[in-house]
Predict the structure.
Amino acid sequence: MTASPATIRVVILGAGKGGTALLELFTRSPDVQVVGIADSNPEAPGLHLARNLGIHATTDVLALLAEERADLIVDVTGDPAMRSALIQHKPPHAEILGGMAALLIWKLAQHEQDLRDQLIQSEKLASIGTLASGIAHEINNPLYTITGLSEHLQEETRPEVIQEFIGEIITAGRRIAAIVQGLNAFARRTQEQAVSDVNLNQTLDEAVKMARMATVHDQVQVVTQFSEVPPVRGKADELLQVFVNLVTNAVQAMEGQGTLILSTSSTNGFVRATVRDNGPGIPHNNLGRIFDPFFTTKEQGKGTGLGLHIVRDIVSHYGGQVTVESTLGQGAAFTVKLPVAPQ
Ligand SMILES: Nc1ncnc2c1ncn2[C@@H]1O[C@H](COP(=O)(O)OP(=O)(O)OP(=O)(O)O)[C@@H](O)[C@H]1O
Ligand SMILES: [Mg+2]
Protein backbone atom coordinates (compact mmCIF):
# COMPACT_ATOMS: atom_id res chain seq x y z
CA MET A 1 0.00 0.00 0.00
CA THR A 2 1.29 3.44 -0.84
CA ALA A 3 0.39 6.37 1.39
CA SER A 4 -2.32 8.54 -0.09
CA PRO A 5 -0.72 11.58 -1.77
CA ALA A 6 -1.37 15.07 -0.40
CA THR A 7 -2.39 16.23 -3.84
CA ILE A 8 -4.15 13.86 -6.20
CA ARG A 9 -2.97 14.30 -9.77
CA VAL A 10 -5.85 13.59 -12.13
CA VAL A 11 -6.14 13.10 -15.87
CA ILE A 12 -9.63 13.40 -17.36
CA LEU A 13 -10.51 11.49 -20.53
CA GLY A 14 -13.55 12.91 -22.27
CA ALA A 15 -14.11 16.68 -22.46
CA GLY A 16 -17.82 16.78 -23.26
CA LYS A 17 -20.46 17.76 -20.71
CA GLY A 18 -19.33 15.24 -18.09
CA GLY A 19 -15.61 15.91 -18.46
CA THR A 20 -16.20 19.67 -18.31
CA ALA A 21 -18.28 19.40 -15.12
CA LEU A 22 -15.53 17.26 -13.55
CA LEU A 23 -12.85 19.71 -14.67
CA GLU A 24 -14.72 22.57 -12.99
CA LEU A 25 -15.29 20.53 -9.85
CA PHE A 26 -11.69 19.36 -9.56
CA THR A 27 -10.13 22.75 -10.25
CA ARG A 28 -12.14 24.16 -7.32
CA SER A 29 -10.89 21.42 -4.98
CA PRO A 30 -7.64 22.39 -3.27
CA ASP A 31 -6.25 18.84 -3.00
CA VAL A 32 -6.88 17.84 -6.58
CA GLN A 33 -4.67 18.89 -9.45
CA VAL A 34 -5.89 18.27 -12.98
CA VAL A 35 -2.72 17.63 -14.98
CA GLY A 36 -4.41 17.06 -18.32
CA ILE A 37 -7.59 16.40 -20.26
CA ALA A 38 -8.10 14.66 -23.60
CA ASP A 39 -10.90 14.23 -26.09
CA SER A 40 -10.78 12.98 -29.67
CA ASN A 41 -13.01 15.91 -30.65
CA PRO A 42 -10.80 19.05 -30.84
CA GLU A 43 -13.91 21.25 -30.37
CA ALA A 44 -14.95 19.60 -27.08
CA PRO A 45 -15.89 22.35 -24.57
CA GLY A 46 -13.69 20.96 -21.79
CA LEU A 47 -10.57 21.32 -23.95
CA HIS A 48 -11.26 24.99 -24.47
CA LEU A 49 -11.87 25.63 -20.77
CA ALA A 50 -8.71 23.70 -19.84
CA ARG A 51 -6.60 25.86 -22.17
CA ASN A 52 -8.00 28.99 -20.53
CA LEU A 53 -7.05 27.55 -17.16
CA GLY A 54 -3.54 26.72 -18.34
CA ILE A 55 -4.14 22.95 -18.16
CA HIS A 56 -2.68 20.53 -20.71
CA ALA A 57 -5.47 19.84 -23.26
CA THR A 58 -5.04 17.45 -26.16
CA THR A 59 -6.77 15.10 -28.62
CA ASP A 60 -4.12 12.41 -28.06
CA VAL A 61 -5.02 10.24 -25.06
CA LEU A 62 -1.97 7.99 -25.16
CA ALA A 63 0.51 10.86 -25.46
CA LEU A 64 -1.16 12.55 -22.49
CA LEU A 65 -0.82 9.40 -20.38
CA ALA A 66 2.83 9.10 -21.34
CA GLU A 67 3.64 12.75 -20.56
CA GLU A 68 1.70 13.42 -17.38
CA ARG A 69 2.29 11.41 -14.21
CA ALA A 70 -1.26 10.89 -12.97
CA ASP A 71 -2.43 9.18 -9.79
CA LEU A 72 -5.92 8.79 -11.14
CA ILE A 73 -7.32 8.53 -14.64
CA VAL A 74 -11.00 9.40 -14.84
CA ASP A 75 -12.58 7.98 -17.98
CA VAL A 76 -15.84 9.63 -18.99
CA THR A 77 -15.44 9.02 -22.72
CA GLY A 78 -18.25 6.45 -22.71
CA ASP A 79 -16.11 4.49 -25.19
CA PRO A 80 -16.07 0.75 -24.34
CA ALA A 81 -12.75 0.25 -26.15
CA MET A 82 -11.09 2.88 -23.95
CA ARG A 83 -10.89 0.67 -20.88
CA SER A 84 -8.76 -2.04 -22.47
CA ALA A 85 -6.56 0.59 -24.13
CA LEU A 86 -6.07 2.23 -20.75
CA ILE A 87 -5.19 -0.97 -18.95
CA GLN A 88 -2.50 -1.54 -21.56
CA HIS A 89 -1.03 1.97 -21.64
CA LYS A 90 -1.54 3.49 -18.22
CA PRO A 91 1.46 4.17 -15.97
CA PRO A 92 1.79 1.27 -13.47
CA HIS A 93 0.86 3.18 -10.31
CA ALA A 94 -2.15 5.04 -11.75
CA GLU A 95 -5.67 3.94 -10.90
CA ILE A 96 -8.53 4.05 -13.37
CA LEU A 97 -11.96 5.33 -12.52
CA GLY A 98 -14.47 4.44 -15.21
CA GLY A 99 -17.86 2.96 -15.87
CA MET A 100 -20.40 3.25 -13.05
CA ALA A 101 -17.87 4.76 -10.63
CA ALA A 102 -17.07 7.60 -13.06
CA LEU A 103 -20.79 8.04 -13.67
CA LEU A 104 -21.32 8.41 -9.92
CA ILE A 105 -18.62 11.09 -9.68
CA TRP A 106 -20.14 12.83 -12.68
CA LYS A 107 -23.58 12.82 -11.03
CA LEU A 108 -22.06 14.32 -7.87
CA ALA A 109 -20.31 16.95 -9.97
CA GLN A 110 -23.60 17.83 -11.66
CA HIS A 111 -25.23 18.13 -8.27
CA GLU A 112 -22.45 20.43 -7.09
CA GLN A 113 -22.96 22.52 -10.22
CA ASP A 114 -26.69 22.82 -9.45
CA LEU A 115 -25.89 23.96 -5.91
CA ARG A 116 -23.47 26.53 -7.29
CA ASP A 117 -26.14 27.88 -9.66
CA GLN A 118 -28.59 28.09 -6.75
CA LEU A 119 -26.01 29.97 -4.69
CA ILE A 120 -25.51 32.50 -7.48
CA GLN A 121 -29.27 32.82 -7.79
CA SER A 122 -29.83 33.37 -4.07
CA GLU A 123 -27.08 35.97 -3.92
CA LYS A 124 -28.77 37.71 -6.83
CA LEU A 125 -32.03 37.65 -4.88
CA ALA A 126 -30.29 39.05 -1.81
CA SER A 127 -28.80 41.87 -3.87
CA ILE A 128 -32.20 42.51 -5.45
CA GLY A 129 -33.48 42.94 -1.89
CA THR A 130 -30.85 45.60 -1.18
CA LEU A 131 -31.57 47.11 -4.56
CA ALA A 132 -35.30 47.23 -3.87
CA SER A 133 -34.88 49.16 -0.63
CA GLY A 134 -32.42 51.50 -2.37
CA ILE A 135 -34.93 52.06 -5.17
CA ALA A 136 -37.79 52.68 -2.77
CA HIS A 137 -35.63 55.39 -1.20
CA GLU A 138 -34.65 56.84 -4.60
CA ILE A 139 -38.24 56.99 -5.83
CA ASN A 140 -39.63 58.33 -2.57
CA ASN A 141 -37.73 61.61 -2.76
CA PRO A 142 -39.05 62.78 -6.14
CA LEU A 143 -42.48 61.39 -5.18
CA TYR A 144 -42.58 63.61 -2.09
CA THR A 145 -41.58 66.54 -4.28
CA ILE A 146 -44.44 65.83 -6.68
CA THR A 147 -47.16 65.42 -4.00
CA GLY A 148 -45.86 68.28 -1.86
CA LEU A 149 -45.67 70.78 -4.71
CA SER A 150 -49.02 69.68 -6.17
CA GLU A 151 -50.71 70.33 -2.82
CA HIS A 152 -49.20 73.81 -2.80
CA LEU A 153 -50.39 74.40 -6.34
CA GLN A 154 -54.01 73.86 -5.31
CA GLU A 155 -53.80 77.11 -3.35
CA GLU A 156 -51.24 79.01 -5.41
CA THR A 157 -52.32 81.86 -7.69
CA ARG A 158 -49.04 83.64 -8.55
CA PRO A 159 -48.17 82.62 -12.14
CA GLU A 160 -44.36 82.74 -11.65
CA VAL A 161 -44.54 80.41 -8.62
CA ILE A 162 -46.89 78.06 -10.49
CA GLN A 163 -44.40 77.96 -13.36
CA GLU A 164 -41.52 77.19 -11.00
CA PHE A 165 -43.38 74.41 -9.19
CA ILE A 166 -44.47 72.81 -12.45
CA GLY A 167 -40.84 72.83 -13.60
CA GLU A 168 -39.79 71.01 -10.42
CA ILE A 169 -42.61 68.49 -10.76
CA ILE A 170 -41.53 67.66 -14.32
CA THR A 171 -37.92 67.20 -13.19
CA ALA A 172 -39.02 64.88 -10.38
CA GLY A 173 -41.20 62.87 -12.78
CA ARG A 174 -38.29 62.49 -15.19
CA ARG A 175 -36.07 61.32 -12.36
CA ILE A 176 -38.55 58.53 -11.54
CA ALA A 177 -38.81 57.61 -15.23
CA ALA A 178 -35.00 57.28 -15.40
CA ILE A 179 -34.94 54.99 -12.37
CA VAL A 180 -37.67 52.79 -13.82
CA GLN A 181 -35.88 52.63 -17.15
CA GLY A 182 -32.68 51.51 -15.45
CA LEU A 183 -34.61 48.77 -13.67
CA ASN A 184 -36.20 47.53 -16.87
CA ALA A 185 -32.77 47.23 -18.43
CA PHE A 186 -31.67 45.11 -15.47
CA ALA A 187 -34.78 42.91 -15.54
CA ARG A 188 -34.29 42.18 -19.24
CA ARG A 189 -30.68 41.39 -18.62
CA THR A 190 -31.32 38.83 -15.88
CA GLN A 191 -33.47 36.83 -18.29
CA GLU A 192 -30.75 36.84 -20.89
CA GLN A 193 -28.88 33.69 -20.03
CA ALA A 194 -26.85 32.98 -23.14
CA VAL A 195 -23.06 33.22 -23.21
CA SER A 196 -21.94 36.04 -25.49
CA ASP A 197 -19.07 38.43 -26.20
CA VAL A 198 -19.04 41.07 -23.47
CA ASN A 199 -17.23 44.40 -23.39
CA LEU A 200 -16.03 44.96 -19.82
CA ASN A 201 -15.97 48.77 -20.23
CA GLN A 202 -19.74 48.68 -20.71
CA THR A 203 -20.17 46.19 -17.86
CA LEU A 204 -18.26 48.50 -15.49
CA ASP A 205 -20.37 51.50 -16.53
CA GLU A 206 -23.55 49.55 -15.95
CA ALA A 207 -22.31 48.21 -12.62
CA VAL A 208 -21.81 51.77 -11.36
CA LYS A 209 -25.36 52.66 -12.39
CA MET A 210 -26.72 49.58 -10.63
CA ALA A 211 -24.68 50.14 -7.49
CA ARG A 212 -25.84 53.75 -7.45
CA MET A 213 -29.35 52.47 -6.83
CA ALA A 214 -28.33 50.04 -4.10
CA THR A 215 -26.03 52.28 -2.07
CA VAL A 216 -25.80 55.86 -0.97
CA HIS A 217 -23.32 57.10 -3.48
CA ASP A 218 -23.73 60.86 -3.62
CA GLN A 219 -20.25 61.78 -2.47
CA VAL A 220 -18.35 59.21 -4.48
CA GLN A 221 -16.35 60.52 -7.38
CA VAL A 222 -16.16 57.91 -10.15
CA VAL A 223 -13.06 58.08 -12.35
CA THR A 224 -12.85 55.84 -15.42
CA GLN A 225 -9.56 54.92 -17.07
CA PHE A 226 -10.74 52.64 -19.85
CA SER A 227 -8.61 51.22 -22.66
CA GLU A 228 -10.03 49.86 -25.90
CA VAL A 229 -10.29 46.25 -24.74
CA PRO A 230 -11.27 43.17 -26.76
CA PRO A 231 -14.42 41.34 -25.61
CA VAL A 232 -14.43 38.48 -23.12
CA ARG A 233 -16.85 35.56 -23.16
CA GLY A 234 -19.51 34.98 -20.54
CA LYS A 235 -23.10 35.52 -19.49
CA ALA A 236 -23.63 39.27 -19.43
CA ASP A 237 -25.67 39.18 -16.23
CA GLU A 238 -23.11 37.09 -14.36
CA LEU A 239 -20.29 39.44 -15.34
CA LEU A 240 -22.46 42.39 -14.36
CA GLN A 241 -23.03 40.73 -10.99
CA VAL A 242 -19.24 40.45 -10.52
CA PHE A 243 -18.72 44.18 -10.92
CA VAL A 244 -21.87 45.25 -9.08
CA ASN A 245 -20.53 43.27 -6.10
CA LEU A 246 -17.06 44.84 -6.35
CA VAL A 247 -18.37 48.39 -6.80
CA THR A 248 -20.90 47.93 -3.98
CA ASN A 249 -18.17 46.68 -1.64
CA ALA A 250 -15.96 49.63 -2.54
CA VAL A 251 -18.72 52.18 -1.98
CA GLN A 252 -19.72 50.53 1.29
CA ALA A 253 -16.09 50.48 2.46
CA MET A 254 -15.71 54.21 1.69
CA GLU A 255 -19.01 54.81 3.49
CA GLY A 256 -20.34 56.60 0.45
CA GLN A 257 -17.51 59.14 0.33
CA GLY A 258 -14.28 58.95 -1.67
CA THR A 259 -12.90 58.16 -5.10
CA LEU A 260 -13.67 55.07 -7.12
CA ILE A 261 -11.28 54.36 -9.99
CA LEU A 262 -12.40 51.90 -12.66
CA SER A 263 -9.77 50.86 -15.16
CA THR A 264 -9.36 48.29 -17.92
CA SER A 265 -6.42 47.03 -19.97
CA SER A 266 -5.50 44.01 -22.05
CA THR A 267 -2.29 42.04 -22.50
CA ASN A 268 -1.28 38.51 -23.52
CA GLY A 269 -4.75 37.26 -24.34
CA PHE A 270 -6.36 38.54 -21.13
CA VAL A 271 -8.50 41.55 -20.24
CA ARG A 272 -8.00 43.09 -16.80
CA ALA A 273 -10.59 45.25 -15.06
CA THR A 274 -9.75 46.92 -11.75
CA VAL A 275 -12.08 48.48 -9.18
CA ARG A 276 -10.02 50.65 -6.83
CA ASP A 277 -11.23 52.63 -3.85
CA ASN A 278 -9.57 54.87 -1.30
CA GLY A 279 -11.45 53.51 1.67
CA PRO A 280 -9.99 51.95 4.83
CA GLY A 281 -8.43 48.95 3.05
CA ILE A 282 -8.44 45.35 4.27
CA PRO A 283 -6.50 44.21 7.36
CA HIS A 284 -3.75 41.74 6.48
CA ASN A 285 -5.36 39.01 8.62
CA ASN A 286 -8.56 39.18 6.62
CA LEU A 287 -6.99 39.11 3.15
CA GLY A 288 -6.96 35.31 3.05
CA ARG A 289 -10.58 35.04 4.18
CA ILE A 290 -12.55 37.65 2.26
CA PHE A 291 -13.34 35.20 -0.55
CA ASP A 292 -14.67 32.57 1.87
CA PRO A 293 -18.43 32.13 1.79
CA PHE A 294 -20.19 33.96 4.63
CA PHE A 295 -17.07 35.91 5.67
CA THR A 296 -18.25 39.42 6.41
CA THR A 297 -17.15 42.26 8.69
CA LYS A 298 -20.49 44.01 8.23
CA GLU A 299 -22.99 44.12 11.05
CA GLN A 300 -25.69 41.50 11.14
CA GLY A 301 -28.34 42.01 8.51
CA LYS A 302 -26.06 44.22 6.39
CA GLY A 303 -23.99 41.67 4.47
CA THR A 304 -24.27 37.97 3.68
CA GLY A 305 -20.55 37.55 3.04
CA LEU A 306 -21.34 35.83 -0.24
CA GLY A 307 -20.44 38.72 -2.55
CA LEU A 308 -16.75 38.01 -3.11
CA HIS A 309 -17.25 34.25 -3.05
CA ILE A 310 -19.66 34.58 -5.95
CA VAL A 311 -17.29 36.97 -7.72
CA ARG A 312 -14.48 34.44 -7.59
CA ASP A 313 -16.77 31.58 -8.52
CA ILE A 314 -18.10 33.30 -11.64
CA VAL A 315 -14.68 34.53 -12.75
CA SER A 316 -12.96 31.15 -12.34
CA HIS A 317 -15.84 29.53 -14.18
CA TYR A 318 -14.78 31.53 -17.24
CA GLY A 319 -11.11 30.65 -16.84
CA GLY A 320 -10.20 33.92 -15.10
CA GLN A 321 -8.79 35.08 -11.75
CA VAL A 322 -9.58 37.73 -9.14
CA THR A 323 -6.76 39.32 -7.16
CA VAL A 324 -6.77 41.92 -4.43
CA GLU A 325 -4.22 44.48 -3.31
CA SER A 326 -4.74 46.59 -0.25
CA THR A 327 -2.82 49.03 1.91
CA LEU A 328 -4.43 49.60 5.27
CA GLY A 329 -5.74 53.14 5.53
CA GLN A 330 -5.29 53.79 1.80
CA GLY A 331 -7.81 51.58 0.08
CA ALA A 332 -8.27 48.34 -1.82
CA ALA A 333 -8.09 47.32 -5.47
CA PHE A 334 -9.76 44.23 -6.90
CA THR A 335 -8.61 43.08 -10.34
CA VAL A 336 -10.58 40.66 -12.50
CA LYS A 337 -8.58 38.95 -15.24
CA LEU A 338 -10.53 37.14 -17.97
CA PRO A 339 -9.41 35.46 -21.19
CA VAL A 340 -10.11 37.38 -24.42
CA ALA A 341 -13.05 35.83 -26.32
CA PRO A 342 -11.90 33.44 -29.05
CA GLN A 343 -12.31 34.90 -32.56
N1 LIG B 1 -13.26 47.40 -1.17
C1 LIG B 1 -13.17 46.89 0.08
N2 LIG B 1 -12.56 47.58 1.07
C2 LIG B 1 -12.47 47.06 2.32
N3 LIG B 1 -12.94 45.86 2.68
C3 LIG B 1 -13.55 45.12 1.75
C4 LIG B 1 -13.70 45.59 0.40
N4 LIG B 1 -14.34 44.62 -0.30
C5 LIG B 1 -14.58 43.62 0.57
N5 LIG B 1 -14.13 43.91 1.79
C6 LIG B 1 -14.18 43.04 2.98
O1 LIG B 1 -14.50 41.73 2.55
C7 LIG B 1 -15.65 41.25 3.25
C8 LIG B 1 -16.38 40.26 2.39
O2 LIG B 1 -16.95 40.91 1.25
P1 LIG B 1 -18.20 40.24 0.54
O3 LIG B 1 -18.59 41.09 -0.61
O4 LIG B 1 -17.90 38.81 0.28
O5 LIG B 1 -19.33 40.26 1.67
P2 LIG B 1 -20.09 41.51 2.28
O6 LIG B 1 -19.88 42.71 1.42
O7 LIG B 1 -19.67 41.62 3.70
O8 LIG B 1 -21.59 41.03 2.19
P3 LIG B 1 -22.52 41.04 0.87
O9 LIG B 1 -21.62 41.16 -0.32
O10 LIG B 1 -23.21 39.73 0.90
O11 LIG B 1 -23.42 42.19 1.04
C9 LIG B 1 -16.42 42.49 3.62
O12 LIG B 1 -17.27 42.30 4.74
C10 LIG B 1 -15.28 43.48 3.94
O13 LIG B 1 -14.76 43.24 5.23
MG1 LIG C 1 -20.22 42.58 -0.68
About this structure: The radius of gyration is 26 Å. The first strand starts at residue 8 and ends at 13. The chain has a mean pLDDT of 86. The chain has ten helices and twelve strands.
